[in-house]
Amino acid sequence: MFISARRMAPFAVLMLATTVGCNAFPRVWGINDDDDSPRRWTKEWYEAHPGDEVGARQKYRFGRLWPPYPRPTSEQLQCSQRYHAAHYWPFPYNCQDQAFVHEVSQRQIQNGWMTETTLLDYHFNDKNELNQAGRTQLKWILQNAPPQHRAAWVQTADTSEVSQQRLAAVQMAATEMVGAENVPAIMLRVATPVGRPAQEIDAIRRAEIGSIPKPRIIYQAVGSAASGS
Q: pLDDT, tens digit, for every residue of 80-134?
């Protein structure tokens, strides 16, 4: 009786497995070559692969990488793991996206407070001491900046000597205002002024107001009808 090759295929596989032994099929029967590693499909094996990524794996065939762009290199997920990923999608990717947004936001907040609490060149006079604008800015920092952002940054000067003089001047002024025990961290920072000093803006505004011409209304008197007659 003629038996097709398709019907004989399962019997051939069974005979081959019996001949060479189960160790030739570790992926099928869950036996590992390394005795120290957990057996496949066991609880310990699943606990050792909690972070395996979803998606097709990259393979090298016919002299090419399939697919050509980077893909996970771990073992392919099982059906139960792929079902779990599809059922709870977009978790955990939405958590990663939220964490990235929060990190960028916190970085921007930190940079913004650092800019607001920086004493720049125009906050010092020719003797490298705080001028009136600088003392006002330092007082605002000590009284109004949130505790987690309460630090005084001093823009570095052209020389280290001048920078140290300005740093000492800010330290002394802060000690006079709030006492030595309440002085926050005072540090140097490489920065660039983002605006103009208040004194310059005030001078420009005063010059603008002083140059405004006086209002004049040009008119010509017209005589009444009686006087015209």
A: 888 998 999 999 889 999 999 999 999 999 999 999 999 999 999 999 999 999 9
Cis upstream peptide for 10 (omega within 30°): no
Burial of 119 (0-12, 13-18, 19+ CB in 10 A): buried
Query: DSSP string spanning 107-169?
Result: HHHHHHHHHHTEE-GGGB-TTS-B-HHHHHHHHHHHHHS-GGG-EEEEE--SSHHHHHHHHHH
Instruction: Quickly count: other Cβ atoms within 10 Å of residue 167's Cβ.
Output: 19
- Whether residue 53 contacts residue 72, with contact meaning beta carbons closer than 8 Å, is answered with yes
Q: List pLDDT tens digits, range 146-184.
A: 999 999 999 999 999 999 999 999 999 999 999 999 999
Would you state the structure tokens that stand for residue 76, as one six-digit string? 């392919």
